[in-house]
Amino acid sequence: MPLQMRLPKRGFKNPNRVAFVPINLARLQAIHEKYQVDTIDLDTLVAQGIVKKTDKVKILGLGELKTKLSVTAHACSATAKAAIEAQGGTVNIV
Question: Are 91 and 76 in contact (CB under 8 A)?
Fold first, then answer.
């Protein structure tokens, strides 16, 4: 039996996949309380060591946001955007 038939078949790795670093609303609230920042953008997250400079950030809607924040990220879910704007904040997509 040929070698390629004897070896088990494995999954597929998509070369075009975009991997995001997820950040929930609860974590945004914790960042605001810990570092006393009202604007959370990529430079702030990199400076605090939360993400790497080459990472792409996506804001997700898990948790509760209690303050007005201005958030800049690569992507944002609809529930997170609605929660941020309900508190009077803004969401900017890079």
Answer: yes
Q: What angle do CA 22, 23, 28 make, to 5 degrees?
A: 175
Cα dist from 68 to 49, 50, 56, 72, 85, whole Å: 23, 20, 23, 13, 8
- This prediction's pTM: 0.83
pLDDT score for 47: 95
Q: Give φ, ψ of 81 to 5 degrees.
A: -65, -40
Q: What is the pLDDT of residue 71?
A: 97
Separation CA 92–CA 81 (nearest Å): 10
Which residue in this structure is represented by tokens 């400076």?
47
Distance CA 78, CA 4 (A): 45
Q: Where are the alpha helices (DSSP H) in 1-94?
A: 3-6, 25-35, 42-47, 78-86
CA 6 to CA 40: how far, in whole Å? Answer: 53
